[in-house]
Fold this sequence. Notes:
Blueprint: H1 6-13, H2 23-29, H3 49-59, H4 61-73, H5 87-96, H6 100-112, E1 116-119, E2 122-125, H7 127-131, H8 136-148, H9 150-153, H10 162-182, E3 186-187, H11 188-205, H12 243-256, E4 260-265, E5 268-273, H13 275-292, H14 303-310, H15 315-327, H16 331-342, H17 347-360, H18 365-370, H19 378-388, H20 402-419, H21 422-427, H22 437-447, H23 452-462, H24 466-481
Amino acid sequence: MTSRQPDESIARGSRLRLVRPGALATARKAVTARRTRPAPRPPEGTPPRAELAAHARAVLADAVRIARWAAVDRPAGHTGHTGFPGQDGERAAAALGLTPAQVGAGWDRARLAGLIELHGDTARPGWRLHAWDRDDSAVLRGWVALFDAWSLVHPAPADTAPGAVAEVVEAVPQVLSLLQLSAGPVAVAGLLDLLGQRVDELREERCEVPPPGTAPQAPGTATASAPAPGSASASDPATGPGLPTLLDWALAGLAAVGALTLATAPDGRHATLTPLGNWAVWVKLEQICVAAQSPAGNIEQSAEDMLRGCARLTPGPARDEYRAWLAARTLSSAVAELLAVARGEDALLRGLAFEALRVVGAPAEPEVRAARTEPPLRPYALLWLAEYEGADPEEAPEVLTREEATWLWVDTAAAVADHGESTLLVRHLDSAVQGTVPALLDEIRAIGHPRTVQVLVALAAAHPDPALAKAVRRAAFQVHTGGA
């Protein structure tokens, strides 16, 4: 290009390649310094991945059949987000030789394992379903997603206080750790003692204290506000089933997803991790250890500091750090903390916060869905929801409107301008959805992103084409002064 006829030159020769936006990848390159870690080896006796995948396929066999029927063989009609309504469930049961209850349960598992994706009321096969028969990694990832959602697969007793359920869900990793370290059957009575102790610790961490006027109790004495571990009222001092009932619910839920087995012996009931459950717990414990040993100490950091540390990692190790950081916190508080960071001014951390929320999965859905109403978070929330509902990550950007895609482009450019090199900012032009630079500049001016001026100034300073740089500077001036 030359600078003699800037407008004509730009319109004629500055076509932008229409490629799918890679916003987070672009922003991450701004600060990525590759680090490699040796892959940890599972404990001796752990079956090979192919054998573990075979177990996972067996656990999800009905879910796969139902997903394939719903996404491929199902007659024309609609399938709702919460399950097969009416005649669809009956048709699926008749076609697959299952009961309607089995169809409903298999449908829920297929959704949680990412075997199907929902577009409105239409079910389509998810990428894991396409790869199910040939990709062991996809199978194991699908099963782990189901394992993480065990409390959704097996509903809690109807008369249980939500707070008591949340405490047990948060305490279950301790129970699983004991089962994994024991490498064999563990008495349910012993698990109940451990669960009670962990629930007490969680209440102490929240600084739950007796109401004013309550007399102090001697150590070990049960009170209404601090029931003895394993007591009938340990889950809720006023109403609902006790901790033993909630432990039974948790063990049944974990058994339902194939993570453990339950058996009755002369000395009582015992629980034993399956090979799949043992492997999954080891993976999660290893993730925690890796994060705890990292130079940044990310597991003990705030969400903002953790994300800054992870920005320098490639995606795989970063996800390990997210999982470890999440494992050390309640999911509700972790989600709130990540969204608080996303609302900040650093666009790079905004993208990374939603990447961490992808690791959270289903428990983050209500908060992410609510974030769609906030303009700075809306594009990220829409992409998160599209991928959560099964969309291929390469196709997820199609859910964004032109304005939302442009907002995301500016936000990513702000991340690059703050953290990256000028050449990367120039290359970021290629990810814009507009066909020409003038069209891009017009739409950037229209969306009202708060960083528009800074992004345009940085782009003008970085771009080697004098004509294009001049047009970008003019656009920055017009935005700054409020001109057309």
